[in-house]
Amino acid sequence: MSLKISTEALDEIRFEANYDTYESMLMRLDPTRFRGLGPKNREAFIRHAVKTCDTWQLHFVNDVAYVMFVMSFLGSYFHEDIRYLGLTAELETIPDGADTRIERLRSRFIALGERFIGRDMALYRRDLAYFSDKILPEARRYDAPSMLAALTASHGARSYELHSAQGSVYLQQAQAASAGLGFDGGEGLTLATAFAYWLGTGFWKDPLYPWIPEKAAQGGETAVMAYALHRLKRQLTLSEGSDG
Prior knowledge:
Radius of gyration: 19 Å
Helix content: over 70%
Keywords: Plasmid
Number of domains: 2
Distance between the termini: 60 Å
Low-confidence stretches: none
Strand content: under 5%
Order of helices and strands: HHHHHHHHHH
Structural class: mainly alpha
């Protein structure tokens, strides 16, 4: 009589065998951030990344690790984000021959990083500082479309516009985030539009940002915005201290 192990059990065995490797990679990438997540949320992020890669039939540890790296910048649900369809397209078509999907993803992400992240994250810090100092404190002055326009125009010479269809889908994704957090009315949608821009459109369910649903449950939009300002300021300080 042969012993048959279920697919689910095999997946769990593989996950447990590789977990320490993934966790070590995250700690090298950003020790302050991933240590601060705590073991439970760190495991949730790793598990989410592995399951997402499984849907693309990406099983090699280095491939999964690179997807985690991209997620750490663009959000754990970047593959659902209307702004990153080009990156996702590189992963979704499973090749018959040599698998170069991660190399193609890397090329696209490097191009994106050169435009919006910069060397030593200088562009990212500059744009995030502008958002946290100028836009977020005045969020109540915007509706969702004008918030999106302000965000895409906030990059100086690198500013851009989403075309109308893409912008409509983005606002629908922000609406889903607002509803998922239990926000009411236009102010909640405006806030969700802003956070989706910086944290990814799936931010409301992202294991990288567990404080968002926690704060939303405690005090709604006001609590989330107040705590977000604190977190963004701290993130800027920590990233400045990590240079060199």
